[in-house]
Design goal:
binds phenylalanine, BirA Bifunctional Protein, domain 2, elongated, two-stranded antiparallel ribbon, 2 domains
Length: 339
């Protein structure tokens, strides 16, 4: 083979065979084969003498470049193995592992789970309803007729002209449960709600509520008080929380009430967290209004019961001592990692 042919062959071949080597030993074999003392490149060098004196310098240069290219290629290949070998060499099974931070549960999810757990233990089932609601389920069936002032209080996101909307509370799930099932009812309905509120320390356009509905033949206001006081006791475990009920107004309950718990920061004496009142509002409730039963085809002469609705973010803030609702939605890991 002429020098030129051999040059062509080797320069077209070395990269492939070097890269096929799968151990340091094999790479070394390749090195000897190409650039060892009696390797292929040196064999070509020997043939320089067959060329004319004018051709020799140019080919000498070419061969030197080929040699340094092959050297580079071999060094690169070697370094790949060296890295691997090093990692293997220093593997010490007695060293402690690398612990990545364990995933944690979002505080809102956590509180939702606790609420579901508590009401399950009190015998409640769980119902879900759509977040896109009809104005009928969100308002009309709940005794909030069109043009009623209470609709304005809800600052609704409408999806089309006053027909479909993003539910402003979980109360429409009461309606759906009663429409689709015969009494008695004993459910909670957790989920997202939407209102056109500006974001601040205690408002967010998306928030969570847990609705409750208990209807039977002899469910009374004292059941409402008993169940909700028991809930507060279990939820704020071990902190001997006191509850009180204040009269209130909701179009879908009569009578209506709001439940307060004693402020856990000052123990009821009054501080800045509770605006010096010693009490904090946690939920709205009341006896289901006969108008609502009527819309759902439930005989209000036979069936009666109570409903309640609680804000999940608010309960989470009270339980964990968080003073700004925005923390729940910022996805700041320093906040989330604490749960
Ligand atoms: N739906 C009411 C609200 O969002 C809460 C509520 C639910 C009050 C059930 C009474 C009964 O404020």
């Amino acid at each position: 083979m002429t020098l030129q042919d051999e040059y062509k062959k080797i320069s077209g071949l070395y990269r492939e065979t070097v890269n096929e080597a799968d151990s340091l030993k094999e790479v070394e074999k390749e090195r000897v084969k190409y650039i060892g003392r009696s390797g292929a490149v040196n064999e070509i060098f020997k043939k320089l003498g067959t060329l004319s004196p004018q051709e020799r310098p140019a080919w000498g240069k070419k061969l030197n470049i080929l040699k340094s290219d092959i050297t580079k290629c071999i060094e690169e290949k070697k370094s790949q193995f060296n890295k691997k070998d090093k990692a293997e060499d220093i593997f010490d099974p007695t060293l402690p592992g690398n612990f990545s931070t364990l995933p944690s549960v979002h505080p809102v999810t956590r509180i939702l789970r606790e609420i579901k757990h508590i009401f399950s233990s009190l015998g409640f089932g769980i119902a879900y309803g759509p977040e896109i609601e009809t104005a009928y389920h969100n308002f009309t069936a709940l005794n909030i007729p069109k043009d009623h002032a209470a609709r304005d209080m809800h600052d609704t996101f409408y999806l089309d002209k006053e027909k479909n909307l993003l539910r402003t509370h979980t109360s429409p799930v009461q309606v759906r449960v009663m429409e689709n099932n015969d009494p008695p009812y004993n459910i909670i309905a957790p989920g997202k709600c939407y209102r056109r509120d500006t974001i601040d320390a205690s408002h967010s356009p998306v928030f969570h509520q847990v609705e409750g509905l208990m209807v039977g033949e002899d469910i009374s206001f004292s059941d409402l008080k008993g169940v909700l006081a028991e809930f507060a006791e279990l939820f704020f475990e071990g902190t001997s929380v006191k509850t009180r009920f204040r009269p209130s107004y909701f179009p879908f309950t009569e009578p209506s009430a709001e439940m307060d718990i004693s402020c856990r920061i000052c123990g009821g004496k009054g501080c800045s967290s509770c605006s010096q009142k010693g009490w904090l509002e946690v939920l709205g409730a009341g006896m289901v209004d006969p108008e609502v039963f009527k819309h759902c085809d439930v005989d209000s002469n036979r069936w009666q019961g109570f409903a309640f609705g609680m804000g999940v973010e608010r309960l989470a803030m009270l339980k964990y001592g968080i003073n700004d609702m925005r923390f729940f939605y910022l996805n700041d890991m320093r906040f989330l990692e604490q749960f």
